[in-house]
Design brief:
The chain is built from 13 helices and five strands. Helix 4 packs antiparallel against helix 5, helix 4 packs parallel to helix 6 and helix 7 packs antiparallel against helix 8. The chain has a five-stranded mixed beta sheet with strand order 1-2-3-5-4, covered by helices on one side. A hairpin with a 2-residue loop joins strand 2 and strand 3. It is of the alpha+beta class.
Length: 392
Amino acid sequence: MNDDEMSVGLGRPPATARQAGIKLLWIGIWLAFMSAPVKDLADGNHTPWATALGVLGLLVFVGAYLVLVFRHTSKALDPFRVRASIAFLGAVAVLMSLTFGTPWLVLFVYVSVSVGATLPLRTARWLIPVVTAVLVGVGATQEDAREIITALVFPALLGGFAMTGVRQLVRTTIELRQARATVAQLAANEERLRLARDLHDLLGHSLSLITLKSELAGRMLPDRPELAAAQVADIEQVSRQALVDVRSAVTGYRRPTLPGELAGARTALAAAGVDADVPADVPEGLPEKAEEVLAWGLREAVTNVVRHSGARRCTVTLTPRQTLDGRVLELTVADDGRGAAGTAPGNGLTGLTERLASVDGTLTTRPTHPRSGKGFTMVLSVPFESGLGSAE
């Protein structure tokens, strides 16, 4: 069982049966407050028929409550069904409380929680006090219910309004995740447009010139072959230069940049449910080759965190340092996962070491928490001579 199966992201629907069970268990924990009606049934205070009806009513109430909160906290799929379900829970609570007595007044707390978890704030802020008032009204019709009413009024109000906050947090998380996906899509579209513009600027003139000279050479070929040959030579030169420009542009597109990888790391860690601390700024003046190596290293490190570490937190830092061999820039990626004890370096770390060697850089790894051996920290260091004044 891995950590992805054990956790369900806030506002994210469960993807597996195991995650659904975990979410249901989290909701079901609050059913511990049902001990009062359960004890009332178990004590034999009612006839066998009344006890059987009480058990049936309690099971129906609990089932309707769980389905309502489980399905509609993050998003009300059917507002009419939500309101009908809350009305049903309220009716059952009133009926059971009037029939079986004061221990069943606790059902109103669950009605209040359902209101806060599933209805908009503008509706919940007046309906929660209404549910609480019904609790007091029903309790007032019964003898010796004052202490129980006093004990339940605060949980009904607090539980209902607390769930409005939870509901708003879940909805906000969903909106942020959707906004992040939209921003990523817009960024991809902008990159496509930039690629189209650059290719047009690179090849538009060259291809037009090649077409013009090809037509000119075709007209010259029968009578003036020497001039046609000159035009063909020009075509070859223009096409070679266009090929060089395209290769240079493609190399620039394929080369990872440190700011881009930092943004990608922030998105990847957030999508994986890892609490990320990633810097937003990069020191100026970092050589292009060194930046490319650090970008590759950051991508490799974050990939390991997301896929293999099982971490809940990851910290990325960029720190300029003065060493005996000169100034260096250190990229540190530390997580609190299961660590790498007893595992051999993979191809990714081997390739990264070779990349760092090409720029006189170094790679060191160690446990984040040496005493327990938990966590994994990767430190990449590259020579960095310029831009330290502004970074420090």
